[in-house]
Amino acid sequence: MGGKVTCTLGEVKQRADFIVYWGGNPAECHPRHFTKYTLMQKSKFLPRGRKDRTVVLVDIRETKSAKAADHFLQVRPGKDFELLTIMRAMIKGQDVPEAQVAETGISIEVLRDLIEKMKKAKYGVMFFGMGLSMTRGKHMNAAALLTFAAEMNAFTKFVAMPMRGHGNVTGADVIMRWQTGYPFGISLNRGYPRYNPGEFSTVDVLVRGDTDCAFIIGADPGATMPKPAIDHLAKVPTIVLDPHVTHTSRLSRVHITTAPAGIAAPGTGYRMDEVPMPLKPALNSPYPSDEEVVRRIKEVIATKPDWMTNQPQMIESQV
Amino acid sequence: MLRITGGTVYDPANGIDGEVKDLYIADGRFSSKFEAGRTIDATGMVIMPGGVDVHTHVAGGSINFARAMTPEDHRRTHAFIRSKTRRSGIGGMAPTTFATGYLYAGMGWTTVNEAAVPVLSARHTHEELRDIPIVDKSSLVLMANNEIILDLLEEGEDERAKHILAWHIWAAKSYGVKAVNPGGVASWKYGNDAKHLTSKIDGYDHVTPGTIITKFAKMIDELGIPHPLHLHCNNLGAPGNVETTLETMRHLEGSRAHFAHLQYHAYGGDDWGNMRSEAAQLAEYFNAHPNMTTDAGAVLFGDTVTITADGPWQHLLYKLTGRKWGNLDVENETGCGIVPYTYRPSNLVNAIQWAVGLELLLLINDPWRVFLSTDHPNGACFWRYPEIIQLLMCADYRNECMANLPPNIKNKISLPEINREYTLYEIATITSAGPSRALGLSHKGDLGIGKDADFVIYHRDHDIARMFGHPRYVFKGGEIVIEEGDIRETPDGREYLVQPSYDPEIDKFLRPLFEDRYCMSFENYPVEMERIERSQIQDCITPESEG
Asked: How many CA atoms lie within 13 A of B107 on its CB side?
C-alpha cells in the first residue's frame, strides 16, 4: 500500500468519463471546479460533455454537490475505510459478508452496480476531500482510497486526487519536499530535516509548548487550532505576516501587513494537481511582499552569531 | 588568478593523455598566462575536466514525487547539516536540491542535464534547478507524446509541427528535446502502451512510434538544436527488447540521436526466465554507426527509486514488485511513474541488468560516444558513479563482483569474457569531454584556453572508487568549491537554454488548440525568461556554423 496514481486536471477535463467525489463538497468548497475542470467541459474524447460522464458522490450527508451527481451513496459516518476495503475486495471478486456491507449504510446491490460501471469506464478519477482524510481513520482512509484507485488499473484506467484548498498549501508542500525531502511536520532543530507528523506538526509542537517563538506566514492557527495551541501562541513571541489582521494577529506580539500574493505580490501558486501557476499582480500595494519581509529578517539574523557551531558538515547515517 | 603546477593532466578534448602540465586560470576560465596569485602544487596528482552528466533526474515534478514517496529512505540516509553558508538537506535515493548540488560537486561533477521536463510543469523544474547550488544546469523537454504534435504528424503537417516543437522548447526554457516511449505514453492515457515501432497508438490511425522517432530526429536536426533527439526507446526493460532498439537505430540512420540509458534496451529472450544480455549485438551495431551517442544507464545493486515518464512500464513494475506506485498523467503532453526498487545480486534479472550496463560501456569502443550514467536514480544514485568507474578500470574487481551473481547467469552475459580496462584518459572522456560534446557545450569538458575552469584534482589512489569519490580539489568557474571533502564555496550555477526560431504566427494556430485541451490561460503557459536566474542562451547550429 502506498503511492498515488493521479493526473493533472486537464486530463480529467479531457478524458474522465467516470468521476467519484468522496467526502468532499466541491459545489460549495471548490465552486469553479465542476465547470472548469470536471463535469461541464466538452472535449475531443467526451464530445457531449456532462452527458458523457458518470458522476458519483460518496458522503455522510446529502450536500449541494449531490445535485450534480448521477449517483449519491450515503455512507454511515466513520465507515469510509470499511466501505473502501469492501469495494477493494469486490473488484477482485472476493466474497464479502452482507452483514459487513450493511454496516456501511450501502447495499451490496448498489455496490455491485457501481463496480460494474467503474470497470466499464475508460478513464476514472476519484477525488477525495477532508470528509475522508480528516475524519476517523484519517490518513488510513486516504491510503485506502489511493490503493483502491491503483488497484482499479487492473481493469481500466483510474486515478485519484485530493481536493485541496486553503490558498497555496500545495506550493508549500511542493517546496518543502524539494528543499527538505518532506512535505510538512518537519523539525530542523538538529540542523537537518527530520519528519514526524504527530510530533513535529505545528499543532503538536504548540500543544506540547515545545517552541519559544512562532513565525506565522499567511495562516491563521489562532482561528482553527485547539485551545492549548492557541494559548501557547499567546504566551511566546508570535510574529504574523498577513495581508489581513487575523485572529492570530490579535494574540501576536508583532503583526506585519504584507501585500496579498497574486493580487499585489508576484510569485508562483501550485494548483491542487501541483501544476505551477504564475501569480501576476494586478494592483500595487503600499505593503511589502512576504518574500521581502522574510528576506530582510533573514539578513538581520545573518549578522548574529551562529548558535549552532562545531557541527559536522554531514552525517553518514541518521540512525 | 590561479596557477596549478605539476599535475598530471587528462584532457581528451585537446588530446592530452597524462602530461605534466601547468594550468592558469583567470576570470573563471583557463588562461594562457599567469601574472600573480595563488599557486597550488598538484605534483603527483591527477587533473581532469569536471564531470558532465548528460542524463539525470534531479529537479521537477517527477523527482519531487519520488521524494514524497520515500520518506523512509530520507530518514536512514546521509544528511547535510546547515551552517551560515550551507543549506541542510538529505542525500539518499532522491536527494533534496541543495544536497544534490553538494553531492555532485563533492565527486567532481560540475554540469548536469535534467532529462525529462513536461512543459506544463517546467516552471516548477526551473524553481528547483535554481535551488541546486554549484553545478551548471540544462534541461530537456518531453515532447514525443504531445498530442498537439502527434495530431499534426497524423495529418502530415510536418512543417507546422516543427514550428510548434520550437515554440515549446522556448516556452519551457529548455535546452533540447526528450522523447520517452514515443506514442506509448500517449496510449497509456487509456491504459495501453506502444511497444514496437509499428504499434498502434491510441487515437491515431497513421502515426506510429517509428514515424514519431524519425520525424522528431529530423525536426531537431533542422532546427539546429545543439543536442540531438534524446531518446528513451519504446519497450523499455522487457526481455527481447533489443529488436525494438535495433529497429529504432535503423530508423535513425542519417540523423543525429542520443540513446538514453541503453542498458534498459539491450535484452534478449522472450520472458523473465530466459532473458539474456544482447549488449554485444547492440554494441556491434552502435560501433558501426557514428551518428549516435548513448549513456549507459548502468545498474548497481542496492535500493533506489525508479522514475520515468514511461507510465505503462511503471505500472508493470508495480505489478511485478507490489511496492508503492506513483503515476501522474500530464494533460496533452506526457506521463510519469514512480516505483521504489531494490536491485539484488541474487536476482537473475537484476544481475543481468548490472552486467549489461558494464558490457555496453566496455564493448562500445569509442569513449566519445558512450557516457557514464545510471539514469539517476533509476539504475543507482548518481553519487555512486565512483563505484562504476572502479568496475570499468579494474577487471579483477569486476571478476570479484561477478562471483556473487547467481550461477545460472552463465551464458546469459558476456561480461566474463571482457578484459578491457578503462584508462584515466577514457574515464575523462566518458564522464566529461564526451557528454559535453554531445550536449553541444563546447566550453565544458575541456581544459583549453578560454574554456570554463571547471576541473578536478584527484589524489592518485589504487582504490579507484575512493580516488573518484574523494577529490583533493574541485574547481567550478575557477573557484575552489570542494577541498578534501569540505564544501568551501557554493556559487550559483548557470542554466543553459536554446532559442530555436519559429514562425511568430504559430501562436495564433496554437492558442485555440491549447484552450481546448488545457485548463490554464495560454499566456500563463510559457515560463517567463525573468524566472531563469543566470540563464545563458546557447546558439543553435546553422549550416554556416557547421562550416
From this structure: 25
Q: What is the mean pLDDT of residues B44-69?
A: 98
Residue A51 in domain: yes
Q: Is B81 on the interface with A (CB under 8 A)?
A: yes
- Where b means 16+ CB within 10 Å and e means fewer, B158-186 reads eebbbbbbbbbbbebbbbbbbbbbbbbbb
| Band (A2; pLDDT cuts 50, 70, 90) | confident
Q: Is the Cβ of B530 closer than 8 Å to some Cβ of chain A?
A: no
Domain-embedded: residue A312: no
Which positions 165-224 of B are in contact with A (Cβ < 8 Å)? 189-191
Report d(CA A184, CA A200) in Å as an integer: 8
Residue A65 · residue A23 · CB < 8 Å: no
Determine whether the interchain pair A192/B81 forms a contact, defined as Cβ–Cβ distance below 8 Å.
Answer: yes
Q: Are residues A17 and A92 in the same domain?
A: yes
CA pair distance B67, B338, nearest whole angstrom: 10
Q: Is residue B545 scored above 80 in pLDDT?
A: no
A180 lies in the same domain as A296:
yes
Residue A309 banded pLDDT, cuts 50, 70, 90: confident
Kindly state the average pLDDT of the residues A135-159.
95
Residue A3 lies in a domain: no
- Residue-wise pLDDT for A292-303, tens only, equals 999 999 999 999
Pair (A188, A270) in one structural domain: yes
Chain B residues with beta carbon closer than 8 angstroms to that of A188: 82, 88
* Same-domain status, A72 and A173: no
Angstroms from B117 CA to nearest CA on chain A: 13
B172 touches B143 (CB < 8 A) = no
Q: Counting beta carbons within 10 angstroms of the beta carbon of residue A130, is it exposed (0 to 12), middle (13 to 18) or buried (19 or more)? A: middle
DSSP state of B202: T
Calculate how close chain B gets to A318, using CA atoms only, in Å.
5
- Nearest chain B CA: its distance from A290 CA (Å): 18
- Structural domain containing residue A48: 9-162
Q: Is residue A69 in some structural domain?
A: yes
**CA nearest to B129 within chain A:** A178
d(CA B169, CA B477) in angstroms, rounded, equals 27
Counted across chains A and B, CB pairs separated by less than 8 A come out at: 186
